[in-house]
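Handoff note, outgoing to incoming analyst
You'll be picking up this chain. Sequence as last confirmed:
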Amino acid sequence: MRIAIDATAACTPRPTGIGRYTAQLARALDDIGSTISLGTRCSHLHRHRHRLRIPTIRSFWIQEPWWPAWARPDVVHVTDSRVPRWRSARVATLHDVVHLLPEKKRDFYISTRQFRDKKLAAYQSLASQCHRIIAVSETTRRDFLEGVDCDPNKVVVVHHGIDPVFRPIPPVEAAPILAARKIPEGAIIYVGDLSHRKNIPGLIEGFLAADLGEIPLVIAGEPSFGGDELLSLIEREGQGRVHLVGWHGDDVLPALYSSARALLYPTHYEGFGMPVLEAMACDTPVVISNTGAAPEIAGEMAEKCDPDDPASISAALHRALGHEQKEKELARKHAETFDWQACARETVDVYQQAIEVAGGAN
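Most recent structure output, in case you need it:
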């Protein structure tokens, strides 16, 4: 099976969820012996230094709507919810569908109206033009099928894996990593974008309501939609206890998680929620909201809260801080069940389904 992956989402100096998914999936597919090539759209030519490169995998540039004549794959996979344009079997990954949520469930700003309309059109294109769609959680699959006219048989759930780099780091190893970047140890942490969808105001209110004395809140991420407003909020309401440390990669995150007292993650909506498993894998207690895919991914291993209620967030944080080592170990074992090679094998099964459907349609 010849597989072409549009890996444009990983062409960035600071990869977050989709970019990290793309890179980890490609490596895992290579590890299990798949024949793949990695494409990057020419729209990202200015970022050529940050292309995803894996020594054993061929790379190429994509000039839409034309793709290289030499590349005639059996299946083409786009990892950022775009519609592949080759005449091969077509697969796309759907990471979240927050723009499909009814207005009553989406009382927070997530994008401009123009961007939302563009996303809604893209979702319908996926439904009509892809032979298979990978949803990263049952929640994402359900919300997609509720909001888009699509054959349910097209949409297959394949969970992410977790990189082995996420493991408990001893304090003697974690301390110098954090100190070099002036990141406080023993903090409550949040890892992710600064956007309204991530409920940063509720995060701060819940943290302050917990009244944890001198324990700081560390926010590791960069501003996204609405970020300037949120930065002003942090400066105004953070009481000097909120530390913005910016984006950090896998060379820092394991130490950050391992040093933290808890991950506070009361977001409004997640399609998956990678930081939840990463924190668990590092023996860090986790607080999540009771909405979106986070409860599905965390199972019973995280403390749940109402993201719109600071008192609920505070109570969940106090419960998390009371976790004993046995509870942390159970959560770590749960996180370890999410395996990238298993994800790759299940993804290959989806490719095969797409090829069979595409062959029957021709």
